[in-house]
Amino acid sequence: MIWRYNKKAKSNHCKLLHKSKGECVLSIEKKATAFREYLKKISNYQEAIGLMAWDLRTGAPKKGVEQRSEVLGTLSSEVFSMKTSEEMKGFLDELTEEKTFGQLDEVTKGCLLECQKEYKKLTKVPAEEYSKFVVLTAKAESAWAEAKEKNDFPSFQPYLEKIVDFNRKYVDWIGYEGNKYNTLLDEYEPGLTVDILDGVFGQLREEIVPLVKEVTEASNQPATDFLFKHFPSKDQEALSKEILSSMQYDFDAGRLDTTVHPFAIGLNPGDVRVTTKYDEKDFRTAVFGTIHEGGHALYEQNIDKKYIGTPLCTGTSMGIHESQSLFWENFVGRNKAFWEKNYSLLKRYSPGQFDDVDLETFFRGINVAGPSFIRIEADEMTYSLHIILRYELEKALINGELEVKDLPDAWNDKMEEFLGIRPATDAEGVLQDVHWSGGSFGYFPSYALGYVYAAQLKKAMDKDIPNFDNLLQAGELAPIKEWLTANVHQYGKRKLPLDILKDVTGEGVNATYLIDYLKTKYRTVYQLV
Amino acid sequence: MIWRYNKKAKSNHCKLLHKSKGECVLSIEKKATAFREYLKKISNYQEAIGLMAWDLRTGAPKKGVEQRSEVLGTLSSEVFSMKTSEEMKGFLDELTEEKTFGQLDEVTKGCLLECQKEYKKLTKVPAEEYSKFVVLTAKAESAWAEAKEKNDFPSFQPYLEKIVDFNRKYVDWIGYEGNKYNTLLDEYEPGLTVDILDGVFGQLREEIVPLVKEVTEASNQPATDFLFKHFPSKDQEALSKEILSSMQYDFDAGRLDTTVHPFAIGLNPGDVRVTTKYDEKDFRTAVFGTIHEGGHALYEQNIDKKYIGTPLCTGTSMGIHESQSLFWENFVGRNKAFWEKNYSLLKRYSPGQFDDVDLETFFRGINVAGPSFIRIEADEMTYSLHIILRYELEKALINGELEVKDLPDAWNDKMEEFLGIRPATDAEGVLQDVHWSGGSFGYFPSYALGYVYAAQLKKAMDKDIPNFDNLLQAGELAPIKEWLTANVHQYGKRKLPLDILKDVTGEGVNATYLIDYLKTKYRTVYQLV
Fold first, then answer.
1. Beta pairing class for B271-276 and B264-268
2. Digit-coded pLDDT (tens) for A128-145
3. What are the beta bridge partners of residue B266?
4. Which residues contact A314 (CB under 8 A, 6 or more apart)?
């Protein structure tokens, strides 16, 4: 049969909302209900937008992309309108009045604060500019994918120039304190500034560059030849699904698909999707990539259901989100204890690839570290250097100290400076990441912050779960997921990143734990102790 | 990375539309442009709704379904609002004025007539009732799938009762002429009535019931044992994709997925998706199911691009749509000439299943006909009897002569009456089809009309393409697709079903050609001539 959408529908949301318009006689309770209905409608639009975005990245036919990007533009514009409408202003004005606000429930209070912040920001931005931007980024992503495939930066340059230009203007519209880049940082990591990052990243760089050198020069390098044997995609997929399940990822509330640049997306806590990709010559891409995205997905699947239909029903920041994915990828997935349980599973799915490889050799092999070109395949030791590189380039672009046309060279120069290697192609250099084509500037630092946060969380978890490694050996990952749900997941966006950190660890951003962890781990892996 | 939708968007549609509001000084051209912008917005919403519907049927996680159905409700309600708004009324009033209308382009004229018809209908329906209905049907579909799986009609009955009740009220709201069921028929097949159908279906039934008897009693029955050997899904999928490509289905403008109840859906002409299912013990389900849905998809992929963003960018009726899928499934796919070309292809993908089966035996086998329970697996000879059964039950339900609780028995009685067999379970009886759970009443007759139309189109095509069978033998299907595009596809919804029929065949609905075709074909297959 040919599917036809149902032509016959009208919700009573609208009526409720229209009623609420300007009616100042409404009781506080009715006002709050109308406000929550309004937020529910916005959230429903965002869920539709989210599904379209997932679809665009997991196999939407290319001839439909241009029209689909217009659909995204239309719905995004409606979301923007609702978030900046007179109606929203009315809700905010009425419900944040001191004696009204005090009588509201916690969730509604949180929604009001979030919407107020967003309203102030969004109302500073010219409508047409944003409309153009949304359409631009939807098209830029396909252009990026093609440019990457063909190693053709010039074909992508005009898109990126428009995107950078937009972000520069965005800073002007919103305004900034201290450094222009702070405004973009705030989009992804509220409370973080260039001052803080220069400090944290400075400390990381200072300690890690020598560690990389030490490890690179170590006499006893891990064997890695066994990593690169043929491992069929379908077997990698079956393995990935088993690992996701053991992490307590709920397949009744999600699914696993393939894509160019893996991601996880929470449409609602009952539908949180993971994507991955399979390299038949390197199983690590899928295995660790899936564990990573699975960590993101666990966050979104375990947000308290009371936040559904509100702007609080998502991770609180990119950095905290990344702390979850990296916790699972590194503290669990690259931990020897984890493979004491799962090495036999891996062997069962692989075609004899590991038959004559003992666990110690395998463990050292999957933790091989050193300079490399591709961020998403970088080891946890060098990863933050890949991020610091992007951070410095973005900072320079936004502050007008660097132009897009000079980006490929600037990128390659920094790679040499940080890691002592220079990309032969832009595909393995400046074109490797999807983020900029999606318009995201200020996002990358969250990755390195995720490492820092994750190490801080692990330190705190050790107090509550002293037998962490034993649980991994037994394959009992539930208590670990429960701890993360209790301390991080459940709050959604109701708690700010630095508050979560403070409540769990008692301190602010502190790179020391990550540095200690990396030194201890890699000196062990490289038998330097 | 975790995907975040872009928070920053506002299209200029709204502005344009607000401008147009009430401004009677606008030039005709500006009014028409504003109207088309307005339609574009509606069409964009419908595309988002369509993608969600596709997703719900191709693997959306079940825990997200309830929330997703609310998203569908929200967007559908917006579409309803836009189609019935004062703004729409304003466009219709101003632009259909005689001297204004005459100055408009053909596409805009067609849009106005379509919107006017819909406006009149939709404005007769209570908003809340429709809102409830959309949410109901979204939930009913999951309930149906579960009920079918567990052969548990009572668990589905309350949903179906609400759906039937709604359709009865719908007829009262809209009004009807002659028979209440006519109002529902008009939803899918404008111009068709119970009077016409009783005539056409009567003639079919009169001629086909004896033909079924003749064929069932034929001494030389086709061998079929070779049909039911193990044929791996992945090989069936590869085969299905090759056949779709040979039909000129454009995979850059579509994709093939699996589902419970196969369908095709056109989101826009650049994104028309086909779904199928694989029965490893009967390859015919996938092969002929895919050709069938592929026929629907070719229609949607080849609508003239000038109709994109308008209500005319879809098939003109369910019956004409079905004529396309059935043309490909039966006149091409079950034609001996088609297999003279493709039998070797089939053999290449199957694991030795046909090694000792000659083409004649194969051809007779895939055309085995006779009484069976499942409509979508019925042969083309008995198919229309399955439809006439549903038609009579729907007619009785809508006219209040039958109640849902009595449906299973009524169904089984008619099966015995028409085909001499009685289903052992409701899963292979009244629960077999998705349509009613989706709220569709008046849809089924289109299937039988599709057969009748297809036979009429084939008769007309024979004049232009006398070497039809030679093209199939050569695997040159392009000219056939081109003929259908030229005579049917390109017009989208701009031409009414009976106009298309008139322009191509010179007459109205006529069952004679189908009856002649079936008699000739099945007397050959069963060696009765």
1. antiparallel
2. 898 899 889 989 998 999
3. B272
4. A266, A300, A303, A492, A493
Instruction: Walk across the sheet containing B264-268 and list its strands.
Output: B256-258, B271-276, B264-268
Percent of chain B at pLDDT > 70 equals 95
pLDDT of res. A135: 87
The CA-CA-CA angle for residues B163, B164, B166, to 5°, reads: 65
Q: Which of A255, A263, A296 sits opposite B61 (nearest CB)?
A: A255
Interface touch B68/A122, C-beta < 8 Å: no
Give the gap in angstroms from C-alpha B516 to the nearest C-alpha of chain A: 26
CB A313 within 8 A of CB A111: no
What percentage of chain A carries pLDDT values higher than 90?
89
CA angle A137-A139-A144, nearest 5°? 85
pLDDT for res B127: 79
Sort out which chain A residues have CB atoms less than 8 A from B55's CB and list them.
Answer: 51, 55
ipTM of the complex: 0.86
| Residues A289-318, mean pLDDT to the nearest whole number | 97
Q: Are the beta carbons of B5 and A76 separated by less than 8 Å?
A: yes
CB contact (8 A) between residue A44 and residue B5 = no
* Of the partner residues B8, B74, B443, the one whose CB lies closest to the CB of residue A11: B74
Encode pLDDT of B271-286 as tens digits.
Answer: 999 999 999 999 999 9
Count of CB atoms situated within 10 Å of the CB of A277: 17
What does the radius of gyration of chain B's CA atoms come to, in whole angstroms?
24
Nearest-Cα residue of chain B relative to residue A294: B2
Residues contacting residue A55 through CB under 8 Å, at least 6 positions apart: A68, B51, B55
- What distance in Å separates residue B154's CA from the closest CA in chain A? 25
- Lowest mean pLDDT across A22-31, A517-526, B294-303: A22-31
Sign of CA dihedral B366, B371, B372, B374: positive
DSSP characters over A188-236: HSTT--HHHHHHHHHHHHHHHHHHHHHHHT-SSPPP-GGGGS---HHHH
Q: Report pLDDT digits (tens) over A362-393.
A: 999 999 999 999 998 899 999 999 999 999 99
Q: Measure B66 CA to nearest chain A CA, in Å.
A: 9
Please indicate whether residue B293 is annotated as part of the active site: yes
Across residues B497-502, what is the average pLDDT? 96
Nearest chain B CA: its distance from A73 CA (Å) = 7
d(CA A163, CA B224): 62
Q: Among B53, B73, B134, select the one facing A3 at the smallest CB separation.
A: B53
A-B contacts (CB, under 8 Å): 259
Spatial distance between the Cα atoms of A283 and A349, rounded to a whole number of angstroms: 11
Q: Do B50 and A3 touch (CB under 8 A)?
A: yes
Q: Cβ B8–A74 below 8 Å, yes or no? A: no
- Best residue in B2, B124, B292, B305 to probe A by mutation, most A CBs within 10 Å? B2
pLDDT for A151-203, tens place per residue?
999 999 999 999 999 999 999 999 999 999 999 999 999 989 999 999 999 99
pLDDT in tens, B404-418: 999 999 999 999 989
This prediction's pTM: 0.88
Say what the pLDDT of residue B19 is: 42
Pick from A6, A55, A434: CB nearest B51: A55
What is the set of active-site residues of A?
A: 293
A133 to chain B: closest CA residue: B9
Bridge partners (DSSP) listed for residue B258: B276
Chain A hits for B253, CB-CB cut-off 8 Å, are 61, 63-64
Nearest to A361 by CA among A226, A204, A174: A226
C-alpha to C-alpha distance for B44 and A41, rounded to whole angstroms: 17
Could you report how far apart the first and last alpha carbons of chain A are, in Å?
68
Strand partners, B274: B256, B264
